[in-house]
Design a protein that fits this description.
Layout lengths: L4 H41 L7 H29 L1 H21 L3 H29 L5 H26 L5 H7 L7 H7 L4 H6 L3 H11 L12 H10 L5 H32 L4 H29 L1 H18 L6 H29 L5 H28 L3 H25 L18
Helix pairs in contact: 1-2, 1-3, 1-4, 1-5, 1-11, 2-3, 2-4, 2-15, 3-4, 3-6, 4-5, 5-6, 5-12, 11-12, 11-14, 11-15, 11-16, 12-13, 12-14, 13-14, 13-16, 14-15, 15-16
Length: about 450
């Protein structure tokens, strides 16, 4: 397909449109994910629904369990209805689910709302990543995905400000009503978001795909044979053949500890900092600073990994994260604490992403998607366990133990990913497909 300057300009405009729409969708995803942690100190202090710390941990795990379900089913659902419709469906689902939380009169209904929201949240991110990968253009996929991932942390920042501005004067329900507003974005998605080219080609809708690609001067993906259940099963078994099972389990253990840490801290950071004696406003400011660090980390980690190697960066990043989380149990001057929270955000979020990068680099092309997908999937059990663990420790009356437990999770991930890197006999593959590493959170 030849490209004139005008057609290239159209291609860039379409890519920018897709990235912008998906970025906003993931922003709302982050807002909905982090809003519970941002309002949680208020819920516990006012004993809303008679809520206790261990119940609060359970509620935090409901959303991450829903995310597990959403992530595991997203591929199958997208294959049936299309990625565009799935993006729209996920935004609709987590927005309506926030409305359920806003009108809930008890823990059971509130928990149902968080679980349904989690399903939408879990399905959106991998689908949005696939969408932007289709339209990013050759050589720009990794950069574009990194940019997309910043939206999740921008949503975390927004959640803190929503809580600061609304919870005290209006009430916690107002914060969840704000999370319903993305419903207004659904007509925009329906009007302007194109279907995935990969989906159209896979479904045999070649004429439609070619027309779309030519109209906007984007590359048409090559048709590939559809993977059968037997193919997927064989790829999974390949992760355990020979000595690979040790490597696989080390990656899975590292991912479990990493996502336990990510979602444990995301859920409990404001409450734990409140327990350390900081005012509610300061505790929520820490959420802003933590997510600013996450944005910087996502943009910087890839460059560091290219220079020093993803396994090494992941191990060092987790060790630094563990040190930062442990330091938060010490009441320091506010300015010093802000620096520690920022650096912890930089290292924590990108450390987990570097696990996926390591698995992608160390895998062969025929089983790379399976290896990364299962590493992410097993890790999500840690995402379910982390909020629950924080609640149990707080219920025992010792918030400092929460910081210690999360720090130990960081140490364990550093050890596991470091051991996996040392055991690997393969050299980093220069042709490793970096698109697979952003299954993230």
């Amino acid at each position: 397909m030849s490209s004139s300057p005008s057609r290239s300009a159209r291609g860039r405009r379409l890519a920018l449109l897709v990235v912008a729409l998906c970025w906003l969708a993931v922003l709302f995803d982050g807002l909905d994910m982090f809003i519970y942690g941002s309002v949680l100190p208020h819920l516990l202090e006012t004993r809303t629904f008679g809520l206790t710390a261990d119940q609060a941990g359970d509620l935090g795990s409901y959303a991450t369990f829903g995310m597990l379900v959403g992530a595991l089913t997203a591929g199958t659902v997208a294959d049936r209805i299309g990625r565009r419709r799935l993006v729209v469906g996920c935004v609709t689902l987590f927005s309506l689910a926030s409305g359920v939380c806003a009108v809930s009169g008890g823990v059971a209904v509130f928990g149902l709302g968080r679980t349904l929201a989690g399903v939408g949240l879990g399905g959106l991110l991998p689908t949005a990543i696939s969408m932007v990968s289709d339209y990013a253009g050759g050589g720009r996929v990794a950069v574009t995905i990194g940019l997309l991932m910043t939206a999740h942390h921008a949503g975390g920042i927004l959640s803190a400000y929503v809580a600061k501005w609304l919870v005290e004067p209006v009430g916690w329900r107002a914060a969840f009503w704000v999370c319903v507003l993305p419903l207004l974005f659904v007509p925009v998605l329906l009007r302007f978001l194109p279907e995935s080219l990969s989906f159209l080609v896979a479904k045999g809708r070649g004429e439609e795909a070619r027309a779309l690609a030519e109209r906007h001067d984007v590359e048409l993906p090559a048709a590939t044979g559809r993977e059968t259940a037997a193919d997927r099963w064989d790829a999974l078994l390949g992760l355990f053949r020979g000595g690979e099972w040790i490597q696989t389990l080390l990656y899975w253990a590292a991912s479990f500890g990493g996502l336990l840490l990510v979602y444990g801290v995301a859920t409990w950071l404001p409450t734990l900092m409140r327990g350390e004696g900081y005012e509610l406003g300061s505790a929520l400011t820490f959420v802003v600073v933590f997510n600013l660090g996450g944005i910087v980390g996502m943009l910087a980690a890839g460059r560091a990994a290219d220079r020093f190697g993803a396994p090494r960066i992941s191990a060092v990043w987790f060790a630094l994260t563990a040190a930062g989380v442990y330091l938060l149990s010490v009441h320091m001057a506010t300015g010093v604490t802000m620096v520690v929270v920022f650096l912890t955000g930089v290292f924590l979020n990108s450390a987990q992403t570097m696990i996926y990068a390591t698995v992608s680099i160390r895998s062969t092309p025929d089983n790379r998607a399976t290896a990364v997908g299962w590493t992410s999937g097993v890790g999500r059990f840690g995402a379910v366990f982390g909020p629950w663990l924080g609640g149990q420790l707080l219920a025992a009356g010792d918030g400092d133990r929460g910081f210690t437990a999360f720090a130990l999770a960081g140490v364990s991930s550093a050890v596991f990913i470091g051991a996996a890197a040392l055991r690997s006999a393969r050299q980093p593959r220069p042709d490793a497909d970096r698109e697979d590493l952003a299954v993230a959170h």
